[in-house]
Amino acid sequence: MPAAVSVFLQAARDVSAAAPKAVILALGIVLIFNGLHLLWTSTLARPAKLLIWYFIAGDVLWVLVSLSLIAGGLWISAAQAIWATMAVALMVTSFAALQLYYLRRY
């Protein structure tokens, strides 16, 4: 699976410029645990504010890194990959905004 993702992201199909498979695999594993943590947090009657800030910070970091990779032409250079990355970044931005909205009403 990491190899397929790497090929999707790279326009030139230049193996030397592709994202390392180990990075993609590690990112996938981290995101699975983050998702499980988020799922667990959603079961809490009133999650701690620090926990909400943790997820907001993760969302902001995701968006900033995504935009930086696109702007720098590192690992994400195919047109379809840029569009997909931008769509995900927009969705993650909306998650952060909703979490901030919830936090302000907290």
Which properties best describe this structure?
single chain, 106 residues, mainly alpha, 4 helices, elongated
What does this protein structure show overall?
The protein has helices spanning about 1-10, 20-40, 50-70, 80-105. By secondary structure, it is mostly helical. The termini are far apart.
Q: What is the beta-strand fraction?
A: under 5%
> What's the mean pLDDT score?
92
Helix content range: over 70%
Terminal residue distance:
40 Å
- What structural class do helix, strand and pairing data support? mainly alpha
Give a quick account of the main beta sheet: strands, pairing sense, barrel closure.
none
* Extended strand count: 0
Instruction: Count every helix, treating DSSP H or I runs of 4 or more residues as helices.
Output: 4
User: What is the 3D shape?
Assistant: elongated
Q: Helix and strand string, N-terminal first?
A: HHHH
